[in-house]
Amino acid sequence: MAAVILTCFADEISHDLEEQLDVLAQEGLSHIELRNVWGKNVLDLTAEELAEIRRISEARGFGVSSIASPIGKYAASDDFAPQLDALDRAIAAAKALGTRYIRLFSYYPPEGARPEDCRDEALSRMKRLADAAAPHGVTLVLENDSGLYGSTDDRCLDILRHCGSEALRLAFDPGNFVMEGVRPMTEAYPKLAPYVAYVHVKDASAEPKMFVPAGAGDGQLPELLEALRARSFDGFLSVEPHLHRYLPFASDPKRVVTAVRALQSLLAQAGMKWA
Length: 275
Known about the structure:
By secondary structure, this protein is of the alpha/beta class. It has one domain (5-270): Alpha-Beta Barrel (TIM Barrel), CATH 3.20.20.150. Helices cover 40% and strands 17% of the residues. The chain contains nine helices and twelve strands. It has helices at 17-26, 47-59, 81-97, 119-133, 153-163, 174-179, 184-192, 221-230, 252-270; strands at residues 5-8, 31-34, 36-37, 40-41, 63-68, 101-104, 139-143, 168-172, 196-201, 203-205, 210-212, 236-239. Helix 3 links the parallel strand 5 and strand 6 (101-104). Helix 4 packs across helix 5 and helix 5 (153-163) packs parallel to helix 7 (184-192). The protein is globular, with a radius of gyration of 18 Å. The model has no long low-confidence stretch (mean pLDDT 97).
């Protein structure tokens, strides 16, 4: 049986890399998804800082699963040139850190507009990003996130079909679908399964709308794991806790440990191996 690989948005532990790795090592993880470290976004790190991150991580037995960039988390009416520059930096970071995956988003509608109103511009931008990434051997993974054009299952499918590129796949996020009123496994996964290359492990309750540990909400996480097992998925499951409302008085490391252990419990129940 193929083993999935656990990783985590460890900046929810601390902005210090060593502290991030300490907690993840304690929980048996082998990878980290890099978003913020040392008070800087991953795309703002220098070449020397990226090299130091790789040196420290590899010395501790860790790999980097993805560059969690903020590309696409801007209005579709904003100047696009800086986004292409950001993609260049993300590709350089991915190569420096030895990963092929770059997380990105799908653009906000202008203020007062509906997501549908920015469809043409959002699709055009996503295709240009995918086309620019393709020659570099990296895979952009689209996160379905609230408020953006690609916040729902149908609009994610619209993006992926329009781009038609192996360089653009989906980072399936069940918790974010719940926040948009979409049932992750009943509605979204059957449409999007061929494009799922990466998974964000985030669960949420529909009422009240709040992120919760895996298995405690309406994200249909057991069903998702069963579907992944059925297809022998051996990619990354990236824990993204967002448990500040669920555990308001817990420390940041405690929230992350709670989220990681909830996923590990579900994997054990599903009879799935992880590394």
